[in-house]
From TrEMBL:
Ranges for domain FAD-binding PCMH-type: 46-227
Coiled-coil boundaries: none
Protein name, as recorded: D-2-hydroxyglutarate dehydrogenase, mitochondrial
Domain of life assignment: Eukaryota
InterPro entries registered for this protein in UniProt: FAD-bd_oxidored_4_C, FAD-bd_PCMH, FAD-bd_PCMH-like_sf, FAD-bd_PCMH_sub1, FAD-bd_PCMH_sub2, FAD-linked_Oxase-like_C, FAD-oxidored/transferase_4, Oxid_FAD_bind_N
Keyword Oxidoreductase: yes
Lineage start: Eukaryota, Metazoa, Ecdysozoa, Nematoda, Chromadorea
Enzyme Commission number(s) from the entry: 1.1.99.39
């Protein structure tokens, strides 16, 4: 088990603090009962003992909360969807939990520029649903899409399953609104709504992956990407890890710009998946390594042909012992 560091010399939450928070954001947004889910991480590996969860509804309220906590020397842990797997969003001791779940009102989208601006408390899947009618998607995707918040995505610097295609968050996040944990609870707007902005320092990149150390992300401006017309998915069975790397090189060569995902699962991971999810393995063999390869494009026939050529090349070179094109689906 992980031994936490000694509790720092922070103040202990008092009734006067709770009264201040209730006056500031309302009693309904200050919770002291039934807060176990905010103290325990997704894997139930880490548990804190926070006595209070706050639900601000605006960046101004976040600012006032942090200003008060600074003056009282109260420790705070920002929390988004609490879907992380490393315990980063739960208290170590009795820190106040600052939940961003109610920062989910403002949403703007410019379909001509492909730029989305929203608050940090939006659930990722809700944003996907908002963008879908406009023909766009967010350039990262996660298994926790239905419960993770975009502010948490930014603060943890998520990669997602399509990083191979779209790159990191740094490529797409062009602006942030952040509340600093200083004596003023300063609200700062970094970046702009312009895709190509080479003015000033791009300070907002410091907050991507910062996990709240420098400030709390309350607003996000993102360049989104056009939704693909078709998606082709293939599964390959491979004997060795070195051959998996060769298959990746071959995929980049044959699939080029339409290659969107390349996921590796060893036989044990596949066994657990099949047993627990009651799925059917599309491969007839039981190889040491399984590769899931996805392409996203605008021409179904062209994309399918590229995928078939790639599969034939991988099998002909002896890099794969089994392979199948498992289907075509609508993107996202």
């Amino acid at each position: 088990s992980v031994v936490p560091p000694p509790r720092a010399n922070y103040a202990v939450l008092q009734d006067c603090d709770l009264s201040f928070f209730e006056r500031l954001i309302g009693k309904n947004n200050v919770r002291t009962d039934d807060i176990d889910s905010f103290n325990i991480d997704f894997l139930k590996a880490y548990k804190g003992s926070s006595k209070c969860v706050l639900f601000p509804t605006s960046s101004e309220e976040v600012s006032a909360i942090l200003r008060h906590c600074y003056s009282r020397n109260l420790a705070v842990v920002p929390q988004s969807g609490n879907t992380g797997l490393v315990g980063g969003s739960v208290p170590v001791y009795d820190e106040i939990v600052l939940s961003l779940k109610k920062l989910n009102k403002n949403f703007e989208f410019d379909p001509h520029a492909g730029v989305m601006k929203c608050e940090a408390g939006w659930i990722l899947e809700e944003l996907y649903n908002r963008l879908a009618p406009e023909g766009y998607i967010i350039p990262w995707d996660l298994g926790s899409r239905g419960s993770c918040l975009i502010g948490g995505n930014i603060s943890t610097g998520v990669g997602g399953v399509r990083r191979l295609r779209f790159g990191s968050l740094h490529n797409h996040v062009i602006g942030l609104q952040v509340v600093l944990a200083d004596e003023h609870g300063t609200v700062v707007n970094f970046g702009s709504n312009v895709r190509k902005d080479n003015t000033n320092l791009h300070i907002h990149h410091l907050f991507i992956g910062g996990e709240g150390q420098l400030g709390v992300v309350t607003g996000v401006t993102v360049c989104v990407v056009p939704k693909a017309v078709s998606v082709q998915v293939a599964m390959l069975g491979v004997n060795t890890y070195s051959e998996c790397r060769e298959v990746l090189r071959l995929a980049k060569q044959y699939l080029g710009e339409v290659l969107s995902a390349f996921e590796l699962m060893d036989s044990e991971a596949m066994r657990c998946l099949l047993e627990n999810e009651k799925l059917h393995n599309v491969l007839t063999s039981n190889p040491p390594f399984n590769l899931l390869i996805e392409v996203m494009g605008s021409d179904e026939g062209h994309d399918k042909e590229k995928m078939e050529n790639f599969l034939n090349a991988a099998l002909a070179k002896g890099l794969a012992v089994d392979g199948v094109l498992v289907g075509v689906s609508e993107c996202c």
